[in-house]
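My main concern about presentation is that the manuscript never shows what a single data entry looks like. For the editor and my fellow referees, an illustration may be useful. For illustration, here is how one protein appears when written out as sequence plus structure tokens:

***
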Amino acid sequence: MTNLFIIRALSFVLFLMIFISVLRAIPVTISELRYLTNNDKFGKILFYVWAIVVSIPLMISWLDSTAGQTYQFLVFLSCVSFIFVGAASSFKDGGITEKVHYVAAGMAGISSFIWAIIYSPVWWIYVLLIPLFGVIGANVQGIRKKNGIYVTTTNTKVFFLELGLFLSAFSVIGSHIFNL
């Protein structure tokens, strides 16, 4: 099961590294990566597949390591919510897709955070990394696609907050899976 966790962590990191190196820029959000590809359909499919590749191995290994815990549903809710983030990757189109995307992203982050507070002795990693990454992102220039044009923005706070949330989750879940 630990291999599935490692696959998940590596697929997350490799996806971001490849996109950032190809774009030679940092997006304003992780979900913005879907729009920054030149081929809209390819970007949508790639982002959705990435969300599944990241979520399913994590869910299997995380559920296995939390067997018998009262609040194990938080594990399931967190992983499935991230799959919905990928499925609703066309969030800029508005309507129900936008709502599903934002609600699912919030549920994924909140449920993993609540689980960490209840079960992990290293829950404080969330409290340290997320604000730290937010400060970093406020001072790093990013890129977004607006009306088909690449636009440079003055900060990437949301991207770095998301990155901090993911890294916190990896750290806390990894410490639980590897019994650290």
